[in-house]
Design goal:
disordered N terminus, globular, 4-stranded parallel β-sheet, Leucine-rich repeat, LRR (right-handed beta-alpha superhelix), about 180 residues, about 5% helix, mainly beta, 2 helices
């Protein structure tokens, strides 16, 4: 079976039988043409490594509750991705999953995610707000490195002493930090 996503599509819904084919062609962004909004089918349980890497046109993604893991670099270099809705039952997000997403402004990490991996938001130039909902979440190296516009972060209170390292900065005066 051949499946081609035409240039005129503005929205694509991914179904189990097509998921690998679309992930392979989506890496360049060229094959998905003018697609800017992606909704992933409820039958899918994971997003593979580099699945949407370098898809420059994507602006908005809804990840359904069936997704439990997002592989490393899955959405890295999606320069126009400004909103991603993560599911409540998401458990894992891989290294650099959202690195270099220049337009991403805010994100909430669901409670079941126990680890913020290395470089997950590295170089997200527009990221201003991060909410981490679980108190037992660990935070990897460079998770927020080069997030120069980050001003508001909600973190578990056990990170209070590590915050300069986590945020990769010495001057904390520009941050609104809330501990839960």
């Amino acid at each position: 079976m051949n499946f081609v996503i035409k240039k005129y599509f503005k929205y694509v819904e991914l179904y189990e039988g097509l998921i690998d084919l679309i992930f392979k062609t989506a890496q360049t962004g060229k094959e998905i043409g003018e697609c800017r909004y992606i909704q992933i089918s409820k039958e899918i349980i994971s997003i593979k490594k580099s699945a949407f890497e370098d898809c420059e046109l994507i602006k908005f993604i809804i990840i359904p509750n069936g997704i439990e893991s997002i592989g490393e670099t899955s959405f890295s270099f999606c320069e126009n991705l400004n909103l991603i809705i993560l599911p409540k039952n998401l458990k894992f997000i891989g290294d650099e999953a959202f690195s270099d997403c220049d337009s991403l402004t805010s994100i909430t990490i669901p409670e079941l995610v126990t680890s913020i991996e290395n470089g997950i938001f590295y170089n997200c130039k527009s990221l201003t707000t991060v909410n981490i909902l679980k108190s037992k979440t660990s935070i990897g190296k460079g998770a927020f490195k080069n997030c120069k516009t980050l001003t508001s972060i909600v973190l578990p209170n056990r990170y209070e002493k590590q915050i300069p390292t986590i945020l990769d900065c010495l001057d904390l005066s520009k941050y609104e930090i809330t501990y839960i």
